[in-house]
């Protein structure tokens, strides 16, 4: 599988954000490794429950990444809705997916190491996942347990380097969908069946055994930074992703 976009153009965000049309996605990329002063400023705009979640992290590095990721999320949404960052109120689905009340703006967030990605659209369900290409993962063993037989066989047949990239590519496709529907990993990675023979277009054969479900989703994979891979999933019958891509910092 080589269906990965390596040429996304990350632009500087405009001074004012407009709500986009229904067929467009906005992708945002942020570096979470920021100065302590900025961490403090972002922490000040978080809600009480977000601050409590941050304090539960054992290591300062992980706590700071969480604060940065959630603070940046509030700042981005503030630009779309034209309200103060600290006034944004999130509600949460049964599996913890955040959403906005009284707004059609749909979003999802993912971060790995010091890279955070955000995906926004109007109306449609959307999910995003980013993973650092860790070489110390026993990809073939995890694939045998959680992927379909064809996906597992593909990974086992590859060299170690290609195993790592292909494994995390498939993982991000599956998790992006599960995050979009609000299930997360509990929904089961094996429920998303990927056509491993495709070389020109990322194709999902079936979702929960149903081809019709797969036809209602668009998946796009890309390289957000060296040694990372990501996929965005959107509930649409569009054939190609129409996105604007912004680098926050």
Automatic annotation (TrEMBL):
Cofactor annotation: Mg(2+)
UniProt keyword list: Magnesium, Metal-binding, Transferase
Gene3D superfamilies with a match to the protein in the record: 4'-phosphopantetheinyl transferase domain
Annotated Gene Ontology cellular component terms: cytosol
GO molecular function terms attached to this record: holo-[acyl-carrier-protein] synthase activity; magnesium ion binding
GO biological process, one term: lysine biosynthetic process via aminoadipic acid
Every 4'-phosphopantetheinyl transferase N-terminal domain range: 37-119
Ranges of residues in domain 4'-phosphopantetheinyl transferase: 126-232
Keyword Metal-binding in record: yes
Enzyme class: transferase
Keyword Phosphoprotein among UniProt keywords: no
EC number: 2.7.8.-
UniProt family annotation: Belongs to the P-Pant transferase superfamily. Gsp/Sfp/HetI/AcpT family.
The protein's name: 4'-phosphopantetheinyl transferase HetI
Source organism of the structure: Hyella patelloides LEGE 07179
Name of the gene: hetI
């Amino acid at each position: 599988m080589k269906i990965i976009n390596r040429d996304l153009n990350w632009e500087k965000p405009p001074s004012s954000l407009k709500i986009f049309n229904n067929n467009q996605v906005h992708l945002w990329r942020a570096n979470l490794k920021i100065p302590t002063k900025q961490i403090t400023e972002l922490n000040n705009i978080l809600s009480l429950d977000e601050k409590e979640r941050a304090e539960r992290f054992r290591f300062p590095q992980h706590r700071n990444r969480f604060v940065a990721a959630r603070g940046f999320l509030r700042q981005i949404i503030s630009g779309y809705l034209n309200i103060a960052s600290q006034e944004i109120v999130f509600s949460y689905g049964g599996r913890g997916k955040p959403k906005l009340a009284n707004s059609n703006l749909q979003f999802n967030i993912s971060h790995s190491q010091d890279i955070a990605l955000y995906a926004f659209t109007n109306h449609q369900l959307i999910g995003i996942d980013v993973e650092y290409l860790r070489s110390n993962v026993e990809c073939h063993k995890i694939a045998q347990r959680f992927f379909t037989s064809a996906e597992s066989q593909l990974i086992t047949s590859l060299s170690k380097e290609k195993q790592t990239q292909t494994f995390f590519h498939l993982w991000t496709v599956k998790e992006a969908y599960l995050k979009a529907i609000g299930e997360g990993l509990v929904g089961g990675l094996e429920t998303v069946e990927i056509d491993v023979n495709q070389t020109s277009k990322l194709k999902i054969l079936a979702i929960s055994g149903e081809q019709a479900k797969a036809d209602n989703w668009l998946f796009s994979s890309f390289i957000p930074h060296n040694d990372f891979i990501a996929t965005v999933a959107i509930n649409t019958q569009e054939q190609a992703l129409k996105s604007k891509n912004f680098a926050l910092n």
